[in-house]
Design a protein that fits this description.
Strand order of the largest sheet of chain A: 6-7-8-3-9-10
Helix content of chain B: over 70%
Distance between the termini of chain A: 27 Å
Largest sheet of chain B: 4 strands, antiparallel
Shape of chain A: globular
Distance between the termini of chain B: 23 Å
Largest sheet of chain A: 6 strands, mixed
Radius of gyration of chain B: 32 Å
Structural class of chain A: alpha/beta
Number of strands of chain B: 4
Order of helices and strands of chain B: HHEHEHHEHEHHHHH
Oligomer: heterodimer
Number of helices of chain A: 7
Number of strands of chain A: 10
Low-confidence stretches of chain A: none
Structural class of chain B: alpha+beta
Largest interface: A-B, 23 and 18 residues
Low-confidence stretches of chain B: none
Strand content of chain A: 25-35%
Mean pLDDT of chain B: 84
Strand content of chain B: 5-15%
Order of helices and strands of chain A: EEEHEEHEHHHEHEHEE
Mean pLDDT of chain A: 91
Number of helices of chain B: 11
Helix content of chain A: 25-40%
Chain lengths: 226, 303
């Protein structure tokens, strides 16, 4: 599904983001990318949805080489990869439903399909009864659920979650992780970037550990070792 | 179709959410367009003024007192045969003397000198009207023939040329000033549009970021800003029309009263050329705004 081959990325003036990283993620896998701050976890995630470009090496998703993806092709890629962030990135003046619909509207989807898809996705994330609430009327966990719902409306093959529980308490963190596991059970590949030891250890999924931009360990059913 | 609708919706939202900035932008655009239209009005007034003066221009050819009425009659017939000549009026020596006295009624020295001369010092006169004032040179040239030249005492034309020249120069100066003013407004317009779009991009940075994140095509992100610029142009042109027509209706009677013989026809000029005048203004301003918006997006909108 996802192939990183000897990927290197540096930031000016000479900060290492990724250094000669090679990684293969199979379809339907749930992979945790862990490491301390500044070790390249987010850079790796950003390379997946073309927010950052590799300087050397290649990045492939589903056989599509996106290393030097054209600007015009980025929207197509992003409709196949759902992305969730720590800060939710919701529009405060839109309701939960409108935030999710927005992803389909800007992609040119027809209103009829939007009316079909959005309530279904909202039910999947457990917000079927709070669709008309604004983000400020919802808890952090619920806001992250909207963000996940928005990422899911395009039925992506891969969901990249960059520190999705960073702003959440323990209960909400647990709920979001359970939701990600549920989405993974539907067949979506999950790439979870986190430095939450408890989450990683409870998940008992594949763990890729980064340090100084390099992959220092890659273990099936691994644990947070740093 | 639905995409076009959504682009339009986002453009209207941009316009409405920054309403004060939108009003300022439209105001500057209206000022620019008003400058252009004032130039057009001045052009029409200038042309009317020149036409009015031209209609009054004639050339007087005064013959020597010894010249026979037959020769003057022949000269008149010859002039009327020229296509450049509109009309020729003959004045007898007595009529010339009377007109001279009337013209110099306030100048006793001249009249006293005239009284000292025995008899009528003036000959007959031909007053020539041309179809076009530019033809006067040709007409006067035609009278240089050996048959008439020795009998011609005087030709007067120079004063009228000076008047026309003065009017043309004055209107040229006004026009140049207007063009400079229009240029300044245009420059301000471009700067304001760039800034307006910049603010709109800044205001919507969150939304734009999310659009990019969820896979909105680049044109979908950019298009609302272009539509917004077109919206400014359209509103500005409509406001300008709403100002120009009542103003012209108001000033036209006063202008017509001033020019008397030649009506300015301002309103009918604007009505007859409505599509051309306002269509061109709409198209030109649209292009300028699109270019300014394109520049602002290139500089401030990274998609």
């Amino acid at each position: 599904m996802i192939h990183f081959k000897n990927v290197t990325k540096t930031y000016p003036p000479n900060v290492v983001g990724l250094k000669d990283c090679s990684l293969h993620i199979k379809p339907g896998e749930f992979v945790c990318i862990v490491g301390r701050s500044g070790t390249g976890k987010s850079t790796l995630a950003k390379c997946l949805f073309a927010e950052e470009r590799a300087e050397r090496g290649t990045v492939e998703i589903g056989g599509w080489d996106i290393t030097n993806i054209k600007a015009s092709e980025v929207p197509l890629l992003r409709r196949q990869i759902g992305v969730v962030f720590q800060d939710f990135k919701l529009l405060p003046k839109k309701t939960a439903e409108e935030n999710v619909s927005f992803a389909l509207e800007v992609a040119g989807e027809r209103p009829k399909r939007i009316r079909e898809v959005v309530p279904n996705v909202m039910r999947i994330v457990g917000l079927g009864d709070k669709m008309h609430r604004y983000p400020h009327q919802l808890s952090g966990g619920e806001q992250q659920r909207i963000s996940i719902a928005r990422a899911l409306v395009h039925r992506p093959k891969v969901l990249v979650a960059d520190e999705p529980t960073g702003n959440l308490d323990t209960v909400n963190t647990h709920e979001i992780i359970e939701l990600l596991k549920k989405i993974n059970d539907f067949g979506t590949t999950i790439v979870l970037v986190t430095h939450n030891r408890e989450v990683v250890n409870k998940l008992k999924k594949r763990v890729v550990t980064l340090e100084g931009g390099k992959i220092i360990s890659d273990v099936e059913e691994g644990k947070y070792k740093l | 179709m639905i995409t076009v609708y959504r682009i339009g919706k986002f453009a209207f939202q941009n316009f409405w959410r920054n309403i004060w900035l939108s009003i300022i932008t439209v105001t500057i655009l209206v000022l620019t367009l008003l400058t252009v239209n004032i130039l057009l009005v001045l052009n029409v007034i200038g042309q009317t003024a020149v036409k009015t003066i031209e209609a009054k221009i004639d050339v007087s050819v005064t013959f020597t007192p010894e010249t026979s009425t037959t020769l003057i009659g022949n000269a008149r017939g010859y002039l009327l045969s020229l296509p450049q000549v509109k009309d020729v009026r003959t004045l007898s020596p007595e009529e010339v003397l009377r007109d001279f006295r009337a013209d110099n009624a306030g100048n006793p020295d001249v009249l006293a000198s005239l009284d000292e001369v025995e008899g009528n010092p003036f000959g007959g006169q031909l007053v020539i009207l041309a179809n076009n004032p530019e033809d006067f040179d040709f007409i006067l040239e035609a009278l240089e023939s050996p048959e008439y030249k020795p009998s011609i005492a005087d030709k007067d034309f120079e004063d009228h040329q000076v008047v026309i020249q003065n009017i043309t120069t004055t209107f040229d100066k006004i026009r140049t000033g207007g063009i400079i003013l229009g240029g300044i407004f245009l420059l301000i317009t471009v700067l304001i549009i760039v800034n307006t779009i910049r603010v709109a991009i800044y205001t919507h940075r969150e939304e734009i970021g999310i659009m990019r994140l969820v896979g909105a095509p680049n044109f979908f992100i950019r298009a609302p800003f272009l539509v917004e610029a077109m919206l400014y142009t359209l509103i500005a042109v409509l406001v300008t029309i709403a100002i120009v027509y009542p103003t012209i209706s108001l000033i036209e009677p006063a202008l017509d009263a001033f020019f008397q013989t030649t009506p300015t026809g301002l309103l009918s000029y604007f009505t007859a050329n409505f599509e051309l005048i306002f269509g061109l203004q709409l198209a030109a301003l649209c292009i300028i705004n699109m270019v300014a918006t394109g520049f602002a997006m290139r500089k401030y909108l990274q998609v």
